Amino acid sequence: MARQLELTDVRNPYPRTDPAIRELEVTNRAPYRVLQITVGWLEGSARQCPASRSAYRGTRELFVSLKSGQSGTAMGELSEQAKYFCVLSAQFLSPGRRSEPSAAAPGPPAVPPAQEPSQQQSEPTR
After folding, report:
1. How do the domains of the chain map onto residue ranges?
2. What CATH class is the domain 2-109?
3. Which of 3, 41, 46, 59 could pair covalently with 82 via S-S, beta carbons 3.0-4.6 A apart?
4. Is the model more confident about 126 or about 93?
């Protein structure tokens, strides 16, 4: 079910003062409320999110509270060298109020961080 969570944007709100802080825009397409996500990051290029957690340079758990169909932001300290981000797993809350952890299968595209306006390129995203 974690595959139904989509990272739609990654920004660095404080590029000069704290480049490791990232703001991630998350959309919940699952039928349940999501409470927490585990995000992995890569430092090289990627077209899809690797299935193996060992392929990632690091992971971070971020707390969110998104109903089905809702979008929102989560903020966390990730590596300054991180280039691509993937949702690895998530914790959902079903209507019956019990927790349902779920691991992601490979397949969703990796999301690169947004560039500052002065660094934007017209080429496809990395």
Report:
1. 2-109
2. mainly beta
3. 41
4. 93
pLDDT band at 110 (very low <50, low <70, confident <90, very high): low
CA dihedral 105, 109, 112, 117 (to 10 degrees): -150
Listed in sequence order, the residues at least 6 apart from 73 whose beta carbon sits closer than 8 Å to its beta carbon are 23, 24, 25, 26
Question: Which residues partner with 34 through β-bridges?
Answer: 66, 92
